[in-house]
From TrEMBL:
GO terms for molecular function: zinc ion binding. InterPro entries: MM3350-like_sf, Plasmid_pRiA4b_Orf3-like, Znf_MYND. This is Plasmid p 4b orf-3 family protein. The keyword Magnesium does not apply. It comes from Achaetomium macrosporum. Keywords: Metal-binding, Zinc, Zinc-finger. The keyword Metal-binding applies. It comes from the Eukaryota. Gene3D superfamilies: 6.10.140.2220, MM3350-like. PROSITE patterns: ZF_MYND_2. Residues 9-50 form the MYND-type domain.
Length: 300
């Protein structure tokens, strides 16, 4: 790699003299050129090592709603990996069990809640199966869906899926879309991306690109806070109530039942419960070990 103030085109007419205001290759963000002509001349040789840098993505589960502790994971993600890959990683990092449907969506910044939600609901459900019509507010510009439609998808997910659709929204398969197609796209840049898991509890994970990092072939979890949240607990309020059942010194019968359910029956329950500092426990080393097994070499 050339010095940062010398054009990376080997046959640059300016030779090795330094130049200010070099153009940065928008793909790898490493190679620099004194002109577009130099960039074009250099491309045939540069393209072999021009790779998009990883994204450092901070993923927050219901930011502002799930607190004390927040449940956050920050992950270095290969730009060429697909959203299906990212789904697998998020399942692992957040301790979910993959028993519900999911999608990724790019939010429409112009979305406003309908002025008359009751009227809309009546129209949506007036005849035939419920559906959103083109004239209603559009929440998402793009939705990336599960390519497999797993046969074990629960009735609760099927029942709610129509709410995720809109006639003016683009829908693609998650395994066909690389991360860079959203995060490097001028069309979607700056728009909020979410990952929703379980269309019943509607666990919304907010994705924010915090920076770039050197290319790796696999995902790496870098940091995070908060014990994984209980699946099928009843969304934000159910999680709050479960934590409360562990914080109280005098649990009611109902609270004791909640603990028992979580420790013995929940699909991602923790037999050690959530009392005391356990609520902050999650094992990043274990997540990273599993990531190595699942992605021996992703999309090189
Ligand atoms: Zn040049
Ligand atoms: Zn490049």
């Amino acid at each position: 790699m050339s010095a940062s103030n010398v054009c990376a085109n080997a046959s640059c007419p300016k030779g090795d003299s330094s130049t200010t205001n070099l153009l940065l290759c928008s793909r790898c963000r490493k190679a620099r050129y004194c002109s577009q002509d130099c960039q074009a001349a250099s491309w045939p040789s540069h393209k072999q090592d021009c790779r998009r840098q990883n994204y450092i993505i901070k993923v927050q589960l219901f930011p502002g709603k799930i607190t004390d502790p927040e449940v956050v994971r920050t992950i270095s993600c290969p730009a060429e990996a697909s959203f299906w890959d990212l789904h697998v990683v998020l399942q692992l990092a957040f301790g979910w069990t993959g028993t519900h449907a999911y999608d990724f969506a790019v939010m429409d910044p112009d979305f406003r809640v309908s002025a008359d939600p009751l009227q809309d609901l009546l129209r949506m459900t007036a005849s035939g199966p419920p559906r959103i019509t083109a004239d209603m507010p559009r929440e998402y510009e793009l939705r990336l869906v599960d390519p497999t439609f797993p046969p074990n998808r629960r009735a609760i997910d099927r029942m709610h899926e129509w709410q995720r659709k809109h006639p003016r929204m683009v829908e693609k398969q998650a395994d066909q879309w690389a991360l860079w197609k959203v995060f490097d796209s001028a069309k979607y840049r700056g728009k909020q991306v979410i990952y929703m898991y379980d269309f019943g509890d509607k666990w919304e994970h907010y994705l924010t690109v915090e920076g770039r990092a050197d290319v790796t072939d696999r995902f790496v979890c870098l940091s995070g806070t908060g014990h994984p949240v209980a699946e099928d607990v009843g969304s934000v309020n159910g999680w709050k109530e479960l934590k409360e059942a562990y914080r109280t010194s005098r649990p009611s019968q109902e609270q004791r039942d909640r603990r028992k359910w979580y420790e013995n029956m929940a699909s991602n329950g923790d037999p050690e419960g959530l009392a005391g500092d356990r609520i902050n426990f999650w094992d990043m080393e274990r997540v990273n070990r599993h990531l190595k097994i699942i992605f021996p070499n992703v999309h090189v």
